[in-house]
Amino acid sequence: MLANYLIGLREGLEAALIVSILVAYLVKTDRRAQLRWVWVGVAGAIILSVAFAVGLSLSSEALSERAEQIFAGVASVIAVGFVTWMIFWMKRAARGIKGELHGRMDTAVGMGVAAVALVAFFAVVREGLETALFLWTTGQATGEGAVAAIGGLLGLATAVVLGYLFYRGALRINLSTFFTWTGVALVIIAAGVLSYAVHEFQEAGVLPGDAAKAFDVSATVPMDSWFGELLRGFFNWTSTPSWLQVIVWGAYVGIVLTLFLKASRPAKPSVTAPEAVPTGAARP
Fold first, then answer.
1. Is 246 within a domain?
2. Is there a domain that residue 271 lies in?
3. Which domain holds residue 67?
4. More confident residue, 60 or 45
5. For a surface tag, which of 10, 47, 144, 188 has the fewest beta carbons within 10 Å of its beta carbon?
6. What is the pTM of this model?
7. How many domains does the chain contain in total?
8. DSSP readout, 138-170?
């Protein structure tokens, strides 16, 4: 559940920061009448993300065993690609995202309420779809879809609270440090999902080497023990991985983590919390 909580928190906080920046800007520029359309866009993004998650589950259940394995493997690779792109994009774009969002909202207000709703929708839906896909793949990898959903929802709930506190000016944290450490954790989680994808492809006969096990520590670390469950939940640990799984896991962590930490060294505090609404100002 910890890994899923982290996924929900990281993705949810990005979306919450974006929404709080949009809301704070409209309030600051005395355009409160447009706020309802921001929430319409946010609601649309949430509905689409939930529908996407439900669609993934229904599609998987309707497939044969081999087709389901291939489907889960492909979805896992796509999820890893999205998450990898996201952590690098956030590191690169965070410092300029506030001004970019302000510019988009200015343009949208001039075009009408539908454009305002669309700005909010597209700002949030990417995070929502990524969250749904990654939580689904981690649930498939651990075999605990319900736990993955609960952990993700708790993370999202925490993100909403933090986003509100940022908006009100009641909370200040170094967002660059936060996104760096959570980015490191997500790289480790994504490596486990990628290893799971390799396993599914091997089970389906798409990739070779399923019988070539790198090691077997099932007697030392039973998968049904609390420690085994913890390792499986966070690292997608398996006590009998194939050599190909180990190689892919190590290559992904080694390459992606090195590049990410290298990109993070010169970074300064990223997205600044939106301006607090002045005392006495009407709440949105």
1. yes
2. no
3. 2-264
4. 45
5. 47
6. 0.71
7. 1
8. HHHHHT-HHHHHHHHHHHHHHHHHHHHHHHHT-
How far is 195 from 40, CA to CA, in rounded Å?
38
29 phi, psi to nearest 5 deg: -95, 15
Residue from 282, 268, 29, 11 nearest 163 by CA: 11
For residue 138 the two structure tokens come to 């981690």
Count of C-beta atoms within a 10 Å radius of residue 196? 24
231-240 CB burial, b ≥16 within 10 A, e <16: bbbbebbbbe
Within a domain: 62: yes
Q: Is 13 inside a domain boundary?
A: yes
Q: Is 164 buried (19+), middle (13-18) or exposed (0-12) by CB count in 10 A?
A: middle
Cα–Cα distance between 151 and 2 in angstroms, integer? 7
Q: What is the pLDDT of residues 65-113, one digit of tens each?
A: 889 889 989 988 998 998 888 888 777 665 666 676 677 777 877 777 7
